[in-house]
Amino acid sequence: MQTDFFLHFKKKKTPILTKLFQQSEKKELFPKVFYEARITLISKPEALQEIYRPISLVNIDAKISNKILASQS
Question: What is the CA radius of gyration of the chain?
């Protein structure tokens, strides 16, 4: 999983993300991929019929920045 990657390389990745977030804050603009999500359908196994629910997959960097911003308010 991607989160495992981030946890494993936390010490190396933190300064890079910090710089990215600081530059984005200065420019008041995040990279384009932060605004994108991939929507996919997953089936509900407990349903009698084939019922699908949509989920959106968001960039992990965007999730980290959103968590940081949410904790500051």
Answer: 16
